[in-house]
Structures are given as C-alpha cells and as structure tokens.
Design goal:
Keywords: NADP, Oxidoreductase. The chain is α/β, with parallel strands linked by helices and 254 residues long. The protein has 7 helices and 8 strands. It has a single domain, classed as Rossmann fold. Bound molecules: NADP nicotinamide-adenine-dinucleotide phosphate.
Length: 254
C-alpha cells in the first residue's frame, strides 16, 4: 500500500558506510525520508537503525547495483511504500584496488591492468548507475522536483588529469577507477540532456579526498565534509544547474 508522505524521499546507493552514509545523515537532517541502499541487508539495517535513533526517518533497502534483481526489487518496494522518489544519489562505487589509497594503487597501470578488474569497476561505477537510474526514473518522474546526483571524483576530470603539472597527473596511472569516473561524468551529461525538458536536474559531484575504507582512511576530509556538495546538488531549486560537475569549491572542468 502506498504511504502518502509529504516529506521528500531520497535513495542513496552504498549508504551503509563512508560518504554515502554521511549523505543519508545530512539529507535526513534536512527532514527527508532516506532510503539506505546497501548490498548487505544487515549492514543496511544497522545504518538505518542508527539514523532512526538519531531522530531521522530512515529505511534500509537491499541494493546491489550490479544485481538487476535487487535493483528491480528496490524500485518495486519504493513504489509500493512511497509511490515516488524525489532524490537519487548514485554513490556506490569501488576503486578496484581494495582499500588502497590512490597514491599507492599501482595495479591499475594501463599497460599491465587486468581486464577483469576494469570490467568489475565499470560494472559497479558505470553500468550499475545506468541500471539504477533507469529503474528509478518512473518514480523520479512522479516527483515535483526530481534530482539525480552521481558521485564522481576529481580524478574523473580529463582536464585535471591531463594537466602534466597538476596533482592528478602525479597519481599512479589508472585504466579502471579513473576512466570509470570519466565515463560517469559523460553519462551525467547525457542523462541531463535527455531529462532537462522534464525538469529532472542531473549533476556530478566530486567529494574530495575523504577518510573512508576505500582509501584505507588516508583521506584528509571527513565523510560529512565530502557529503556536503552532494547534498547541495540533491537539494537544488528549480533554477539550479543541470549537466554540471561540482566540488565544494564550485564548478569543476570536465
Ligand atoms: N573517499 C574518497 O576520497 C573519494 C573520492 C572521490 C570519490 N569517491 C567516491 O565516493 C563514493 C563513496 O565512496 P567511499 O569513499 O565512501 O567508499 P566506501 O566507504 O568504500 O563506501 C562505498 C560504498 O559503496 C558500496 N558498494 C560497493 N559496491 C556496491 C555494489 N555493487 N552495490 C551496492 N553498493 C556497493 C559499499 O558497500 P559495501 O559496504 O557492501 O562494500 C559501500 O557502502 C564512491 O563512488 C567513490 O568512488 C570517494
């Protein structure tokens, strides 16, 4: 049965920990109902319960972005429970190198990379995003102010990465994670162009170098600091940008 709600409903993939969890906490703090997408139902429920204990309206949703069955089940559950979705944050992502900081990830060197690693990274960071957006679009179309935010990375910027004097050219070259975020940026623009006429704003966010499991806690920003730009893009007004790429400091070059 539909449960009519006046609160905005936000779905965040990979929200059981790290930046995704901080995004969920901040959106809940703004009064939204937050759906904690997690591939492990137990860890999703733990995160949702912690948010509820802090006063938020949070629900765990089992979602493995590489598993079409869970994507479909998640969309069906949201439709039955809420009838619509206002905000979709595609945050789930993997580096492909485990919990190794980008400064130390030498296993993605283009000339020697394992293609299976590239496929696995694209499966989650790129194809998974397409699957989730397309499953959620019918629900987003029922929102008065639908917003989609894709969690990208400064490293996905071709302009920044190709500057030989910049900090990103100094990172170990990557044929997996970095190109996956460039592809995610390209997808952001293509979805934005398709959905502009419907008022669905689609943007990419670069959280910065954030202290999480994904870099073995070498990042210098807190998850809350990394989440802030995502939350800003998730709560844009009708006159807000679409097809943009932003960090906390403002627009980034593609
Ligand atoms: N940390 C940084 O400095 C940084 C910088 C730039 C961009 N980012 C991006 O920020 C996003 C969040 O990263 P994070 O640093 O917070 O990493 P994290 O702590 O490792 O969290 C990643 C989240 O994604 C989930 N996930 C991975 N594969 C999934 C799948 N197939 N289906 C559903 N969920 C999946 C993880 O679930 P499990 O717990 O089950 O593994 C976890 O909840 C990623 O897209 C990452 O690329 C991070």
């Amino acid at each position: 049965m539909n449960e009519p709600t006046t609160q905005k409903v936000a779905m965040i993939s990979g929200a059981n920990k790290g930046i995704g969890r901080a995004i969920a906490e901040q959106l809940a703090g703004l009064g939204m109902t937050v759906l904690i997408g997690a591939r492990d139902p137990r860890r999703g429920e733990e995160a949702a319960a912690a948010l509820r204990a802090a006063g938020g309206d949070a629900h765990a949703v089992t979602l493995d972005v590489t598993d079409p069955a869970t994507v479909l089940e998640a969309a069906t559950w949201i439709e039955e429970r809420f009838g619509r979705l206002d905000v979709l944050v595609n945050n789930a992502g993997i580096t492909g190198s485990g919990q190794v900081s980008p400064q130390d990830a030498h296993d993605q060197m283009p000339s020697a990379v394992d293609l299976d690693m590239v496929r696995a990274v694209f499966e989650t960071n790129v194809f998974g995003v397409i699957a989730v957006i397309n499953a959620m679009l019918p629900l987003l179309r029922r929102s008065p102010e639908p917003r989609i935010v894709n969690v990208s990375s400064h490293a996905g910027s071709l302009a920044l990465s190709s500057d030989p004097d910049g900090p990103f050219a100094a990172l170990p070259p990557s044929a997996a994670y970095t190109p996956s975020k460039t592809a995610l940026n390209a997808l952001t623009v293509q979805y934005a162009n398709e959905l502009r006429k419907e008022g669905i704003l689609v943007n990419a966010a670069a959280p910065g170098y954030v202290d999480t499991d994904s870099n073995n806690h070498t990042g210098h920003l807190t998850p809350a600091q990394g989440a802030a730009v995502v939350v800003r893009l998730a709560t844009l007004g009708a006159d807000g940008p679409t097809a943009g790429f932003f960090s906390a400091d403002g627009p980034l070059p593609w």
